[in-house]
Amino acid sequence: MLKWLYRFGSPKLFYQLTDSGIRWMALICASLFFIGIVWALLLAPPDYQMGDSYRIIYIHVPSAGLMQGCYYLMALMSFTYLIWGIKMADIVAQACAPIGATAAALMLISGSLWGVPTWGTFWAWDARLTSSLLMFFIYIGIISLRSSYESKESGSKLCAMLTLVGLINIPIIQFSVEWWNTLHQPSSQLSLRNTAANPPEIWVPAFILGFAMIAFFFLVLTLRVRNEILWRERRTQWVRQHLLGGDDNA
User: Where is the Cytochrome c assembly protein domain (predicted)?
Assistant: First the structure.
């Protein structure tokens, strides 16, 4: 297994394997976003309690899922880098951080906008909101820590350790609405169990936009990883040949 990890952890191999798939990823991402947004804004009916203000969940919920999913991947890559020292794992972890921070910011902003008609305020120091804000700062801290080190290896190891420590915040975000009395409602707005409150015309576009967000994540992640590979491997022969338009398989 370790041999397999090192083989497929080659920056050159990753760059070559992803070279032809970016256009398809972009097409799938754009198509899903178009279908999901049109359905969510024009075809989905108003909520029986919140009217049209509930439509912000089509941004808020996928952003929250992306924020957490991105961190899980960062933690896995950080663990892999610390244990086996695989370069690609560190590159992926580095590429994930700005995406996760953006998703966290989008979730916080959309949640605050939703809070005005729902709670009557932009912000409340609620357990779910506070732990989500902490996750945003963890992302920012990891990005800042990495950029503050001239030694890439030292910065990578410290960022990997900080990422693993920050992993404890994920279950707090997930279960805060069950552990404490919070303003934030439980994760049931799009539950399939309550089909009367959530007919298919409401939850289907949410799932489409959820998949669109996943496609967007992998598209941006792939582009960021490829750019980082070119930067880190800029002195190698295959990168020079690639940038000059030659055969990078040599």
Answer: 19-184
